[in-house]
Amino acid sequence: MSIDRVISHMTTIAELSATTANHPIHKRALLDMYFAASPEILTVDADIQPAVVGDLACEWVIAENADINRRILYVHGGSWMAGSSISHRPLTARLAKACGCAVLAINYRLAPEFPFPNGLEDIIHGLQWLRNHSPTGEQPAEQVFLIGDSAGGNLSLAAMLALAEEPKNLPDACVLLSPATDLNYERKGFGSACDNDPIISELVLPYIVAKYVQEQGDLKNPLISPIHGDLKSLPATLVQVGEREILLEDSVNFVEAAKAQGNEHIQLSRWPDMPHVFQGFAPILPEANQALEEINEFLRQI
């Protein structure tokens, strides 16, 4: 079964990561292999164009059906200290094709060399840049969307909270894939998803957060833990999460908090038996293909 192949692959990555004590250099190398469960996954059907955003070397991912006036800023995951436009290219290429948008994959600065708020500042700047730049040059966008996974989901939410006082700077909609929303991982209550997660251990989460936050130690800062922010003014947001991952609680609690504040534009999509950022395992995982189509349908309604 495809899901068995994905889980086996993830388990191998987790075991290798544990043997290196999660050192950032090794973590980056392993993250580059995260989606490599099958050669089919690594096939990229899109045009890749380099882009410079400020001082950041980024890339445009453009499928044949792309409307360059509809743009996605993609914020990769990787524990704030790994990942890149290259590691996530299979996913961004399939998002570009599924949604018919031009995707800008941003290579934000990584911890521990660049801890909070460096990466967040890059995402904010990237959103502003995307509004006025297309793959062909300076050109205002008709629609701007923000999509982020895991740590990238955290940065995406933090960016929106930072921009909330100027609604015109917010994206038209946001999609979050297994976002980290409450970085106080000393808390209890991860539930059965904790035991079934093949890639993330609750024991390593505080270490990862410490590498990202460093001296900025207030884990209730909404720009660090977005669940503590003013969530009622966030734009239309879709949160997809697997039920076989430790960050399930982060997604569920965040959506509940947003709705409790009166946000009627946020929705949660739970996927039984799916692991962390399962969307990146298309096309071999049927649920990943379905999730990408759900994202397309959500964005088409905006």
Automatic annotation (TrEMBL):
Say yes or no: keyword Hydrolase present. Answer: yes
Q: Which UniProt keywords apply?
A: Hydrolase
Task: Extract the Pfam families matched here.
Answer: Abhydrolase_3
Q: One MF term from GO for this chain? A: hydrolase activity
Q: Mind telling me which InterPro entries this protein's record contains?
A: AB_hydrolase_3, AB_hydrolase_fold, GDXG_lipolytic_enzyme, Lipase_GDXG_HIS_AS
Q: Where is the Alpha/beta hydrolase fold-3 domain?
A: 72-279
- List, alphabetically, the SUPFAM superfamilies matched: alpha/beta-Hydrolases
Name the protein family.
Belongs to the 'GDXG' lipolytic enzyme family.
* Name of the featured protein: Alpha/beta hydrolase
Organism, scientific name: Sessilibacter corallicola
